[in-house]
Design goal:
Largest sheet: 4 strands, mixed
CATH architecture of the domain at 2-82: 3-Layer(aba) Sandwich
Number of helices: 5
Pfam family, one: DCC1-like
Order of helices and strands: EHEHEEHHH
Shape: globular
Radius of gyration: 15 Å
Number of strands: 4
Helix content: 40-55%
Protein name: DUF393 domain-containing protein
Strand content: 5-15%
CATH class of the domain at 2-82: Alpha Beta
Structural class: alpha+beta
Mean pLDDT: 87
Low-confidence stretches: 114-126
Organism: Marinobacter zhanjiangensis
CATH topology of the domain at 2-82: Glutaredoxin
InterPro entries: DCC1-like, DCC1_Trx
């Protein structure tokens, strides 16, 4: 079974996971990063999981970012819509868009005291 690690405190992430839960046809489980103990099975580490979407397969292979998104959606009837994001023609642009969006989301939610609710960290210079 594939396990998708997601940020349960992010409204957009929760919305996407709720849609995936509703549409998935089996073989996909969900792990809210914030509901795992610090010594839980968070192999890449909590910060890495918050920065990018992560999915681990039953054989232990990790898919990160765009690849995790495409793999998660492959468990739904809409999976074919995401497959072109991995094609050589589209992948470079899709990768840049995903990484910029993910970096911005992380900075706004976790990297500065004025951006994240309850956070008391200073900007990290990302």
């Amino acid at each position: 079974m594939d396990m998708l690690f997601y940020d349960g405190q992010c409204p957009l992430c929760r919305r996407e996971v709720n849609t995936l839960r509703r549409l998935e046809r089996g073989g996909l489980g969900f792990v809210d990063i914030h509901r795992q103990p610090d010594d839980g099975p968070l192999a890449p580490g909590r910060e890495a999981l918050l920065r990018r979407l992560h999915l681990v397969t039953a054989d232990g292979t990790w898919h990160i970012g765009l690849d995790a998104t495409v793999r998660a959606w492959s468990h739904t009837p809409a999976g074919w819509l995401f497959r072109p994001l991995t094609w050589p023609l589209f992948r470079p642009l899709a990768q840049v868009v995903y990484e910029r969006w993910a970096d911005r989301r992380y900075r706004r939610r976790y990297a500065c005291e004025s951006c994240g609710p309850g956070e008391d960290r200073k900007p990290t210079g990302l």
